[in-house]
Design a protein that fits this description.
The chain is built from ten helices and 19 strands. It is α/β, with parallel strands linked by helices. It has two domains: 343 residues, TIM Barrel, CATH 3.20.20; 98 residues, Sandwich (Immunoglobulin-like), CATH 2.60.40.1180. The strands form three sheets. Strands 17-16-19-14-13-12-1-15-18 form a nine-stranded mixed beta sheet, with helices on one face.
């Protein structure tokens, strides 16, 4: 959260003649474009954002009867080899709607989170071999036409979600999960060697703690396949995501998984770094201040921040920081409407974070990333230019600076001669991706000042005038 202090001046320089590689496509999301049990459909927004992957997790929370194992195979005692015992229809429709956005699917095999005190489905399977055969039949249905199925070529298959979050996602022991991962991962790779299998979707990915260390040891000692290692982080500091990405890459290499991809497949802005203020809009205790009224006020602030411009700036800053870090995929939680969603619950309007992800999608398509340097650590910038040299974009994010700023912006050496049209869009406390100015500069370069809030995004779209 920010407090107002005196105005500072900082400088940002972008040199569009210096290509430094490609923009990484880190703008994937969790959950498909349809939700609220069919009442919301964000297909057009998903298509515009060019989300590379959509991870299917917690889907029944917004679209009933989808994805989870117990929903597809509802009667555990039934014959798992008989197609009549599967309920694919709802998930078929959900996956088809998701694929129509142009995204690839990451299918989480397992169950959704259970917030209720009494748990129903997050127990270890009674029979690991039977559960594995059910998973294989799901893969056959979606990739090989089994049970009047499809040939969707879904490549990524994740085994469970957050088994280290024992109170909400896995009621068994760590060892029981390790053994489940072993049985399922080996079976999938044995029958479908072309597929990418991974896990575990760590909830608390401090890689030096016993749970992940023991998991990696077990996988190494048993020569288990792991095409991707998945982990989650909800944070109020982009730097923390960077730290964790580095630590996880080092650990994977240390344990011999040098070719295993690192997937940050759940992440979001967490105000105050405290979940207690995010539980249904009110704090679950008064540990912050001891004053219930104050905590209710902070809860309201946290809910607004998690959906507003602070979440947007955190998202943009994180996407920019992670461009240079050893993470291969990032999947925002979540894509549809909700407290942590990209769209308003009422009316379905896109929030600021959506436009940060959409802008990254546009920049991925432009291919050429260019050099950008700022002299203030809270300011980050990602810039790119298209191969035809007819358009360029710079996404500038300032996160939690604590003061208003006079940002001096130099956009140099644009790849065309003559005048430049510069369209500026702002995301801040007053605006959700609103065009605030359109300027024409006489040369292939732009120099201007921008009065920027402590937490805000400025997006510059440039082309020949």
């Amino acid at each position: 959260m920010t407090t107002t202090r005196p105005i500072t001046q900082s400088n940002l320089k972008v040199d569009f003649s210096k290509h430094i590689g490609k923009v990484k496509a880190l703008h994937s999301v969790n959950r498909g474009p349809v939700g609220s049990w069919g009442a919301e459909d964000h297909t057009e927004f998903y298509q515009k954002a060019r989300f590379p992957h959509v991870r299917l997790h917690d889907c029944p929370l917004h679209m009933m009867d989808t994805v989870d194992i117990h929903l597809i195979f509802p009667n555990w005692d039934a014959d798992e080899n008989d197609p009549a015992n599967y309920r694919f229809a709802a998930t078929d429709r959900y996956i088809q709607a998701t694929l129509e956005t142009g995204a690839q699917i990451v299918y989480r095999l397992g169950e959704s989170i259970e917030h209720y005190a009494v748990k129903t489905y997050i127990f270890p399977p009674k029979d690991y071999e039977k559960w594995t055969r059910i998973c294989l039949n799901i893969i056959r249905h979606y990739n090989h036409g089994w049970a009047d199925g499809f040939e969707h070529n879904i490549r990524f298959w994740e085994i469970w979600n957050e088994p280290d979050l024992t109170e909400k996602m896995w009621s068994g022991t760590a060892q029981q999960y390790y053994e489940l991962y072993a049985v399922v991962s080996k079976a999938i790779k044995a029958e479908f060697p072309e597929l990418q299998v991974g896990g575990p979707g760590l909830a608390m990915p401090s890689i030096h703690k016993p749970w992940p260390q023991n998991f990696l040891t077990y996988c190494r000692d048993n020569a288990l396949p792991m095409d991707f290692f998945s982990w989650h982080r909800y944070s109020c500091r982009p730097e923390e995501l960077v730290e964790m990405a580095r630590n996880i890459r080092e650990a994977l290499d240390e344990y011999g998984y040098t070719q295993t991809q690192s997937h940050l497949n759940e992440w979001h802005y967490l105000p105050f770094q405290d979940w207690s203020f995010m539980k249904f809009g009110t704090p679950n205790n008064t540990k912050q201040t001891g004053d219930h009224e104050v905590d209710l006020f902070k809860a309201k602030m946290a809910m607004e921040a998690a959906a507003g411009h602070e979440a947007a700036a955190f998202t943009a800053s994180s996407l920019i920081h992670l461009q240079d870090e050893p993470v291969d995929a990032a999947m925002y939680y979540v894509g549809n409407a909700g407290r942590f969603g990209l769209f308003d619950l009422s009316g379905g309007a896109p929030r600021g974070a959506y436009f940060a992800l959409q802008t990254l999608g546009k920049m991925v398509d432009m291919q050429h990333r260019t050099a950008a340097v700022a002299d203030e650590e809270t300011v980050s910038c990602l810039a790119s230019v298209d191969p035809a040299c007819q358009q360029a974009t710079a996404m500038i994010s300032r996160f939690d600076a604590g003061c208003y700023g006079d940002l001096v912006i130099d956009l140099e050496n644009l790849p065309w001669s003559g005048a430049t049209q510069c369209e500026l869009y702002a995301i801040d406390s007053q605006r959700r991706y609103q065009q605030v100015e359109r300027r024409t500069f006489d040369s292939a370069g732009c120099h201007f000042h921008w009065f920027i809030e402590p937490t805000a995004i400025l997006i510059c779209h440039l082309h020949p005038a």
